[in-house]
Design a protein that fits this description.
Blueprint (H helix, E strand, L loop, with lengths): L2 H24 L4 H32 L3 H15 L12 H11 L5 H11 L3 H7 L10 H16 L3 H14 L3 H13 L3 H14 L3 H17 L3 H21 L1 H21 L3 H21 L1 H21 L3 H21 L1 H21 L3 H21 L1 H23 L1
Helix pairs in contact: 1-2, 3-17, 3-19, 4-7, 5-6, 7-8, 8-9, 9-10, 9-11, 10-11, 11-12, 11-13, 12-13, 13-14, 14-15, 15-16, 16-17, 17-18, 18-19
Length: 412
């Protein structure tokens, strides 16, 4: 019996003893006194109970358990959660342009010379070689030149001119390559309705499974981004089926399609709360990415890290903490290595992974580890926020809040 109940019993006993003493002293108790004695013997314990309840309710609001603190720290992280869908396109604009160059079966001599200048890093000279006077004739090759120039203008962030050149390429020669390039540009600009229209044209004009699989994949990304999960799931699944068929004949080319589509399908199933499917797809994607990274780490390690990160988020939310820690640590190791060579591209991911590791260690009561990870994440996010406050200031505030909660907990 706890202290509260002992006090209640004592109060009742006191009330009863008072009644007995009154009867013994006076031989009787008046009706009015009897009511007072009853109020005293019952009312006092009742008042005590009410005051105790109010006190406990107040304490409950002001007391945070380690589990509640950990849940608070990861609340926003889960909203950010998994990394967004990946593109089959190359990681950088330069690589994407290089891929476009290789896909052009019949470039003009002028375009080939511009491509040479681009590869040397002379983008302005390459653009000058494809000025308006040079692009006077409306031929298939001229359309290819417009498309190539649009890629370079996009790289220089001259988006208005880039769009004008993409559209001009389609106007001159509405081939699959020209239409797909315009659709992808519009998708990157979040102009989803227009992009969907051009992707639909691409599907109509696709001459083989290679063109079809890329279009289906990008359409699925678009429908995923616009909250149309059923359409996205059907398109990812169809793209995956085609990709598996193509990879059986040419795995060196199409394994990437399979891995990327699996990764994005897993993202979708995660958002649809179909976690067993998501885990299976992430694991298969990870196996392929790791195999690709063995031969070409520079190209594919980022994919390995991203898939490990997403698996860690999944395992955290299914309370599989040892797996979560292992996957975050593997992802962090890769992101640190990538960031050493290209901090502008990968420092954000180092901080993000550190942030989530801190949440994990807060959840598992490894507070010194959590503090260390959040402090390092804070240094990185603070540096990034100085360059881009609209993108990273909220992350700075999140980590600061996490550290304050952790500090308050350690004082208790």
């Amino acid at each position: 019996m706890n202290k509260r109940w002992w006090i209640i019993v004592a109060a009742i006993v006191v009330g009863l003893v008072t009644i007995i003493i009154g009867l013994w002293k006076c031989g009787h108790i008046s009706k009015e006194n009897m009511i007072l004695y009853l109020i005293f013997s019952i009312g006092v314990p009742a008042l005590f109970l009410v005051l105790q309840w109010i006190k406990e309710s107040s304490n409950k609001k002001n007391t945070t358990t380690p589990e509640e603190i950990a849940n608070k720290t990861v609340e926003k992280l889960i909203e950010k959660g998994i990394l967004p869908p990946a593109d089959i396109e190359k990681a950088t604009a330069q690589e994407a342009i290089e891929e476009d160059i290789q896909r052009d079966p019949n470039p003009s001599e002028r375009k080939q010379k511009a491509e040479e200048e681009f590869r040397k890093g002379n983008i302005d000279k390459a653009l000058q070689m494809l000025d308006s006077d040079a692009l006077a004739n409306d031929t298939e090759q001229t359309a290819g030149e417009y498309r190539f120039k649009a890629w370079m203008l996009k790289l220089k962030q001259d988006y208005a001119e880039a769009e004008r050149h993409y559209r001009r390429a389609v106007e001159i020669y509405p081939s699959f390559s020209n239409t797909f390039a315009l659709a992808k540009y519009l998708q990157d600009q979040n102009r989803h309705q227009e992009a969907e229209m051009y992707y639909t044209e691409c599907l109509k004009n696709a001459s083989d499974d290679n063109e079809r699989v890329g279009t289906l994949h990008n359409l699925a990304n678009l429908h995923n981004d616009t909250n149309q999960p059923q359409k996205a799931e059907a398109e990812y699944s169809e793209a995956l089926g085609i990709g598996r068929r193509l990879a059986a004949e040419n795995p060196s080319v199409f394994d990437l399609y399979i891995a990327t589509t699996l990764h994005n399908l897993a993202n979708l199933h995660w958002n649809m709360n179909q976690r067993p499917k998501a885990e299976k797809e992430y694991r298969e994607a990870l196996d392929i990415y790791q195999r690709l990274a063995t031969d070409n780490p520079a190209a594919y390690e980022r994919n390995v890290a991203g898939t490990l990160y997403n698996l860690a988020v999944l395992h955290y939310n299914t309370n599989q903490y040892p797996k979560t820690e292992e996957e975050y640590n593997e992802a962090l190791e890769i992101y640190r290595r990538l960031s050493a060579d290209n901090p502008a591209a990968y420092e954000e991911y180092v901080a993000r992974t550190l942030n989530n590791l801190g949440a994990l260690h807060g959840k598992t009561k490894q507070y010194s580890e959590a503090e260390k990870e959040w402090n390092e994440a804070l240094v990185i996010y603070t540096r990034l926020a100085k360059l881009s406050p609209e993108a990273f200031q909220s992350d700075v505030e999140l980590v600061q809040r996490n550290l304050k909660i952790l500090n308050d907990l350690q004082k208790q």
